[in-house]
Design brief:
191 residues, alpha/beta, Glutaredoxin, 5-stranded mixed β-sheet, two-stranded antiparallel ribbon, 22% strand, Thioredoxin_ResA/DsbE_sf
Length: 191
């Protein structure tokens, strides 16, 4: 069989495949734009990117006091560093009754490294035991601070989970609220 005898795809089937891929690309672009718009709308009342994180001293769940301030960050042993030893800090606000927090918080265990510090802050809780039970049930292994209504007001937290990504000087780089996957959170810490 010569090359001229081999079957060739018809022009109409090539156009059909190309049209199918263009349509899928347009759908993907639509969903990315929709997600971006929704994310922006949800975070519209949070602290602005570029502003400094409020300085707040909070008790840690496991009997260590820690500080979220303009410059220092908290490491998992409760020590403060000045300036921050991590390039970025993810501060994740949650409530023990929040079902979305229950789904997303375990993924935080996958994110921490030498360049990224993860600090979680419990809000809207009634007892320390309630927070301990929640943290234990989701398997979170990092530092948990016990926030209060003042903390929620300072960070303008109006829903759960809410989170901020800050640089080593406490400047807010990104803010968002709602469900996010570990890859989504990781991506936000890289932008």
């Amino acid at each position: 069989m010569s090359n001229s005898d081999s079957p060739r795809p018809s022009d109409s089937s090539s156009r059909s495949v190309r049209s199918k891929w263009l349509r899928r690309g347009a759908e993907l672009l639509f969903f990315i734009l929709l997600f971006s718009a929704l994310s922006h709308w949800l975070s519209r009342h949070m602290l602005d990117s570029g502003s400094n994180a409020p300085s707040t001293r909070l008790p840690a769940l496991y009997n260590r006091a820690a500080t979220l301030a303009d410059n220092p960050t908290v490491n998992l042993t409760g020590n403060l560093t000045w300036p921050a030893t991590h390039e970025r800090t993810l501060v994740y606000f949650f409530a023990p009754w929040c079902s979305i927090c229950r789904v997303s918080m375990p993924g935080l265990n996958l994110l921490g490294n030498d360049d990224l510090r993860i600090v979680t802050v419990a809000l809207d809780w009634e007892t320390r035991e309630e927070v301990e039970t929640f943290v234990s049930s989701v398997g979170f292994r990092g530092e948990v601070l016990l926030g209060n209504a003042t903390t929620a007001q300072q960070y303008q937290v109006q829903g759960y989970p809410s989170y901020y990504v800050m640089d080593s000087n406490g400047r807010i780089l990104h803010q968002d609220k709602g469900l996010s996957t570990p890859p989504g959170l990781w991506l936000r810490t890289q932008l």
